[in-house]
Design a protein that fits this description.
single chain, 548 residues, alpha+beta, 7-stranded mixed β-sheet, 12 helices, 23 strands
């Protein structure tokens, strides 16, 4: 029979249940408040005193100005554990680990602040130390994508201008420009890092002054925007700002040509909104490493091309160019390409009768310029291959012959790499020469056919060079076999010269009691003369045959 609780026990149980419910509600509210409150940024840690090797720079004094040098935090495991050595006026003072900072006290004026690692040389910055409260005496130590150390001055912006804002026509764009509410000296701030107090994220800045406050741009590469211009009827109207793109695109018979270099995702997002680009094409342009191709997205085209350049060591430098083409715009995005396309823009502007064709002619000019850059590469490799062929027929030892084989194989690999970056573009351009032509490129088939012919010639040249390399490898191996046979013949000749005396000496060295010539008075000199005579005859025969 179940036990009944007394009145006092039932009251105690109800009180316990109410306490549990209240505790649960309090926990939920606490977690909700934590989720809605952003976490405070992790502060920079000060460098321990024992790691400061020059104490005179870190102690305050009258007339000295505090200069804060910070090492930005990085999640990259390659650089986060490297020591960043810090120098003041050529003297090493301390080192900075990931997320650390150090404050120096320096007299006003220009001081050389430098940083380095065990893998990087010293990078110096002529830092203007000033007591003017309008400026911040702060420097930032960062690492780029190639894990190279860098040092920039930092200006803390009082406003942030990175948020998207709506426009009247319900489209969106980012206001790239913002203003510091102070009359600043551009010579002091130009090229520094700007850190937004709202985002806390350091960004490269382009600072200018137009009769008053300093204007700067947030987000990413200061050289991201190479050019932005509007064209109509084959003539350039004006260089325009990014904010004005939508206005010019809306005009009839007008198109906008924008060139970007290594843009950030936010900058590509701005272009996507301005030109209404397809998100898949934007994703390909953002991540890169795409195969050369030409794709249609509605009434627009998306083209990917690879550029091939040679560095000082003769190694390939592969870049990528993505081109968005619409009826009223052209957007080119290049990554990893050292040489720009300013010559293409100049060529188009000097041919207004062709520029009237609009964005299709610009696409042709860009593809044609990329293809023309392949010819010097192919010619340089052809010259190198001819030099290798000449080396094959020289007198080479085994080490030199092995080096020739290695060089030929390296040449073959480079030709395969070159073909891998060029041949897909030939297949893509063929779509613009015949059959169903995209409406944007209608009337331009002859120009694209010319580009296709150039690509076809380059691809065929590469294939021919690959066949020559295969033949050269076989010829070189044959030359090695011939050299080995020559060595074998020479060794055989010397073996024959030694075999005759050895045979005669062996006969008369036998331990028989009765050998006819054994007690002959002139036996020894006669045997020597016979040995020399036979060897002389053999030597003359081998010499005449070319074995010796």
């Amino acid at each position: 029979m179940p036990m009944r609780l007394s009145r006092r026990g039932r009251a105690a149980r109800r009180a316990a249940l109410a306490a549990c419910v209240a505790l649960s509600v309090l926990s939920v509210l606490t977690l909700a408040s934590c989720a809605s409150t952003p976490a405070e940024p992790v502060p920079f840690k000060s460098v321990p005193a024992e790691r400061i090797v020059r104490q005179g720079y870190t102690q305050p004094g009258p007339g000295l100005v505090a200069v804060d040098v910070r090492r930005e935090r990085s999640r990259d495991v390659i650089v986060r554990f490297r020591d960043a050595l810090v120098y003041i006026d050529g003297e090493r003072v301390t080192d900075l680990m990931n997320g650390e900072h150090v404050v120096f006290y320096l007299p006003p004026g220009i001081h050389r602040i430098g940083v380095s690692t065990q893998f990087d040389p010293v990078v110096e910055l002529n830092f203007v130390v000033t007591a003017d409260p309008r400026y911040t005496n702060r420097a930032s130590v960062t690492f780029n994508d190639d894990h190279r150390i860098g040092l920039q001055r930092v200006a803390v912006a009082a406003v942030a201008a990175v948020a998207m804002r709506p426009r009247i026509n319900n489209s969106k764009r980012a206001p790239y420009a913002a203003r510091l509410n102070m009359a600043a000296d551009p010579s002091l701030l130009k090229g520094v890092l700007v850190r937004s107090r709202e985002t806390g994220r350091p960004s490269y800045a382009t600072l200018t002054r137009e009769g008053g406050p300093v204007c700067f741009r947030f987000e990413g590469n200061p050289n991201m925007l190479i050019n932005c211009a509007a064209y109509q009827d084959g003539r350039k109207l004006a260089d325009i700002d990014i904010d004005a793109i939508s206005d010019y695109v809306a005009r009839p018979e007008c198109f906008v040509w924008v060139a970007l270099k290594d843009p950030s995702p936010d900058e590509l997002a701005v272009m996507k909104e301005e030109f209404d680009l397809h998100e898949l094409a934007i994703e390909d342009a953002q991540h890169g490493h795409q195969r050369p191709k030409i794709e249609e997205y509605g009434d627009s085209l998306f083209t990917v091309m690879h550029t091939v350049e040679m560095d000082e060591n003769g190694e390939f430098v592969i870049g990528e160019v993505a081109v968005f083409v619409g009826s009223n715009y052209v957007l080119s995005v290049r990554r990893g390409t050292r040489a720009g396309f300013q010559s293409v823009r100049t060529r188009c502007e000097h041919e207004p009768h062709l520029l009237k064709e609009g964005s299709a002619f610009v696409l042709y000019a860009l593809i044609d310029d990329v293809v023309d850059r392949y010819f010097p590469i192919v010619e340089a490799m052809s010259t190198e291959l001819e030099a290798l062929e000449d080396r094959i027929f020289e007198k080479n030892d085994s080490a030199a012959s092995r080096a020739i084989v290695q060089d030929l194989y390296t040449m073959k690999r480079r030709l395969v790499t070159l073909q891998h970056h060029i041949q897909p573009l030939r297949e893509a351009v063929s779509k613009l020469t015949g059959g169903r032509i995209p409406s944007i490129c209608s009337g331009m088939q002859a120009y694209f056919r010319d580009v296709y012919d150039h690509l076809d010639r380059i691809v065929r040249t590469i294939e021919g060079r690959r066949e020559i390399v295969v033949t050269a490898v076989q010829v070189n191996l044959g030359m090695i076999s011939l050299a080995e046979s020559e060595i074998t013949k020479r060794l055989g000749s010397f073996a024959a010269l030694f075999a005759v005396p050895t045979m005669i000496a062996g006969i008369y060295g036998m331990n028989f009691e009765r050998i006819p010539e054994l007690h002959f008075k002139f036996g020894y000199p006669v045997v020597l003369i016979v040995m020399l005579a036979i060897d002389f005859v053999l030597y003359r025969r081998f010499r005449k045959a070319g074995w010796l």
